User: Fold these one by one.
Assistant:
Number 1:
Amino acid sequence: MKRTDLLKAASYVYIILPLIIFFLGWTKLYLVGIPLTIALITSLYLIAKKECNSDCKFHFTRAEVIKVILIVGIIALWVYFSGIGGLTWQNLDHKWRNEIFDVLVEYKWPVVRGTQYGTNGMSYYIGFWMIPAVIGKLFGLSAGYIAQYVWAVIGVLLVYLLICRRIKKVAVWPLVVFVFFSGLDIVGLFIINHKEFLDFTLGTHIESWVAGYQFSSFTTQLFWVFNQAIYGWIITLVALENTNNSIVLVMAAGLFSASLPAVGLMPIVLCNIWNNARRIRKIKNISIINAIYTSLCTYENIIGLFSAGVIGTLLLSNNAISYTAGSGGQTKIKALLLLGVIAILILIVVIEIIRRNEVFRNNVKRVLVNNKRLIQILLVLIGLAFVAYGANHGLPANNRFTQENNICKYILFLGLEVGIYILLTYRKGKHDNIYIASIVMFLLCPIFILGSSIDFCMRACIPAQIVLFVYVVKMIDDIVIQKKKLATVIMILTLLIGSVTTISEFARTIHGYHEYEKNGIETVRTDEIMESMNFCSKAEDSIFYKYFARYY
């Protein structure tokens, strides 16, 4: 029976609504705001009709509804301890995020301010705050902070329900695993810095146990960078359920709300596009190229492409992208983008030639089949050489975070953060190209440096972490059912040792509550936001502020 898939519909609304608010509030209405808003609402309608009105394979029984109520309670408590909404003590990063939110509420949109360095416009992934900021503008700043908390709870709930659908059950224990899931940071601290290990007490932040590399636990992500984390989780899970019809639109929404996770999601999305195309090829008896081409050429994806173009002009003007600490000056971002565009155009032309020319297509297939093993070996060798170089140097530039990087620390980091989980789940996931793509992302994320910090490593890995977590939950189910005692013991010990990281995050919130009672919600100065390379761009040099933004 056909029924509306409310979970998927709600997830699409959650990720696309901020885009609509942004276009209406920040851009020229006649040029961008109204046309793209109408187009996005139309896209939501088409998505609801195509993807959310199908054979629903997942629905709640009465017993599961009771579980969901308990799950909502756990999520509400988890989000409370994160400090989102300023209801309790917050980690250091919240000071900047609080000020971003204050600026979004109190300043006219688009946010532009004259500084000692010129006129700066906000250029940041602000999707999470769009709805709460509107609430704040209408009902006051305090109401806006409460709206942040509620919006976060809704987002995390959608994330967890999407996870439940992937594991095909509604249960409380996977949520507990999600909250406490982490790499073995405490073991890394013991190996790398024995003195700090001996001084360790609950409340110590140990995610950065090795300089230059970090895969944050889900709790750390929520407690420190919630604006990227929640949207990074949800776009990953929505993309994995996507049928190619609206995948570009999903990525555009991800670019706006969680830019670095969206970049890390791209290889996984490419695998999913391929998988969907293979299914379409079997059903319609057409070539794989035709299947990819027809499944991606949809109204929703075209609108997503336009949306991504506008958002791209906002984010790519960000000073953190234009400058790196290691280079000491402006990088060749525009040249790299031009090369990227040229490469994509060449790829499109090649695909079209292959699609139209059967003889050429057969010759390419013959070369690939006859030399499959040689091509695989060459790709592996090139990949290993690239990874080894990056692990020792950091790409594209060294900075103070990566000066001591070397291949030994890189291997140790990967082994303790994700290696044991991969060993436990590899047999189950080795035939899934999405799982393999996630492993590749774990290998690549630590070696890329963007701006003056290691944000790319910490955030671009989020989609791969979600995929790995789903496999860990499935593996736990299997080993318990099959009564594999050794595997069960290893998995439980790994999760318990990893949970030290997240327990310490909770402890720090508890320890800091007295400070919160004294100081309340803390922020940095507005100048630290509007003059920071991480959050702004030169308005006069930005394509977005010159051509798309409404008059400021």
Note: The chain has one domain: 2-331+396-548.
Number 2:
Amino acid sequence: MATLNYDWQKIGTGSEKNFNNPRAHLELYAKLNSQDVGNNKSNVTVELRLVMSSGYIGNYQATYWSIGGNLSASGDLGSGSYYSRTLGSATGDIYHNNDGTKSVSFSGGFNPTAWGITLDVSGSATLPTIPRASQPSVSSASVTLGSAVTINTNRASSSFTHTLEYSFGSASGTIATGVGGSTSYTPPVSLAAQIPNATSGTMTITCKTYNGSTHIGTKTCTLTVTVPSSVKPTVNSDSTSFTDGNTTVTSKSIGDFVHKLSYGVVAISASGAQGSTISTYSITVDGQTYARSSVAELNTILKTLQLSVGEDKTVTISVTDSRGRTSDSISKTYTVLAYSDPAITTFSVARCNSSGTLEDGGTYVKANIKANISNLNSKNKFTVKLGYKLKTASSYTWLTPYVNESTSVVSVNYTGNSAKIAGGGNISASSTYDIQLYISDSFTSNTRTLTLPTGFDLMHFNVSGKAVAFGKKSEAGANQNMFEVGMGAAFTKGIHSAVGRLSTPNVEHQYPNSRASYDFIICASSMNDSGFKPGSDGFITTCFWDNNGTFDSQIFIPNNNNTPIKFRSRGGSDWSNNWRALAFLDQMYPVDSIYMSVSDTSPASLFGGTWERIKDRFLLAAGDTYTAGSTGGATTHKHSTGGHTLTTSEIPSHNHKVTNSTTSYASGSQPSWKCLSWSGTSHDYWEDVWSEHAGGGGSHSHGDTGETNHMPPYLTVYVWKRTA
């Protein structure tokens, strides 16, 4: 179907008929005269034409014609003779469909009455579409929220007006009404709330076209809108804090963090921007940044960190939202005070008299004391006190503290002339005492206990007449037989007992009749079982595992390396288990273990077992390529090209010298080469020749490298492998 334009177009041809020898048919022609976009109509002319194939129609009195269809017209041509000619035409406006399209059809007829024959014709065509709804466009494919963009309606008629609307996420609204050719539009920043998890989105702009009050049609376009960089989360500095999480420290009102004791706790007040939510909380402490999805998780980490000492230190805090935007950081300043546990640097005690003069039998204690604590802003409380008790007593008598929860004193030096005299004459010279120094600060304490012996007597007989002491006063009970020594002893002869003999070099110890109070003794009496000779072969230790001595274990420790350490055990008097070697070897060097040493002493002589020596080999860690126990390798190797044509990738970068004075080159005479450089008059050319020359892909031989060695720096050791 033809589309009409402003030239005549044939749109229909009728059937040919015979008028008593002349032959004729009708044809329809049409053309577009104009289009009225505003009123959605076209002005069209259609013509009915008579076409004579031969002859003419004679003189007839009446000839009627007619045009029908989208346009109509008729007429009578009257009498006369007719050749090919235009019979008539019709011109008129044809209204288009609402979408601007239109198809038309026409018909025509011619009736020369005297002949009784009628000619007819029909035809159709399409009218050019009249633009209706305007197709909007934007001056920029993307715009930042809060910035302007121009919307062009691209209207087909100046009489058209438009209503522009937007939709974005769940938000929609009217941009403008009565818009002609264009308008400026600034999408509000508040629309960012529609994309809380993204920095950009697609907006739909709807253009409704009107001709007067008649709605012609609707079309849309899209616009990418981006969230401005200024839209980011914020941290409220006034409501955000970094404080000490150790309530023990904060309860002491120190005012600052305390090293080793304090840990940080952060409270972050933050908010998203235009609908975003906070996804990550971050803090930088001592140069290390930690980021977690919640403040609680962040504080779990902070609790494990030991803050470094320093004044006016800074932590930085920020948050990141669901758009991936990070807030400006805020800083919090804090100080971490150096701290150490209360320290006793000097403590010694001795007997003295009331004036502090040292006396072997003094009933006072002279104590030399040095101690200190950390200052902590002069708020750390220092206490120093001394206590004493009989060695056999369970509780101390505490003297009045020398320093009592003082915040102004952080160290004491009670030595020399400042040494403390204590005890008030109540320290009996006949008894041994424990003297304890106690110091504390606001957080912890420290003690040190020393033994104050009895007064010194070269020899002292107990009043019971059953005990004697040397170098001290006897402290034996009334019915206790005891030999007491309070000074060093040197024995040059053995000590013998009628009940047994316990021996170490030059010293023999009694094997007790009752073992209830003993846990461990060294014994060499009647222990020569299985050929062992205690004292000459080694010695035996005996362990008593209960108060009744009903279960023993013995360990034999030899005097030489050739005899293994052995043990046995018994219940009551029955040695149910014979001597067995201790399993040190199997635990330290199980079968297939490797032993290395710079000494050539075989591990078999050290630990026992069967060992195979490995010589002149490196050890290689087993893996996917080399299995455990496999061997290989060589001490030397060579590189050779003999009989092998090297490929280009196998040849290392190198040069071949070509001399200009001859035509004999590396692989024969060649007519030309490429000269890279020469110097002076020697005309030495460095080869970069074509493929037929030596070098590059050319074939030639370089020979062998000979035997080479790639031994790395090494330390030679003896190596054995245990086989059994």
Note: Residues 343-452 form a domain with the Immunoglobulin-like fold (CATH 2.60.40).
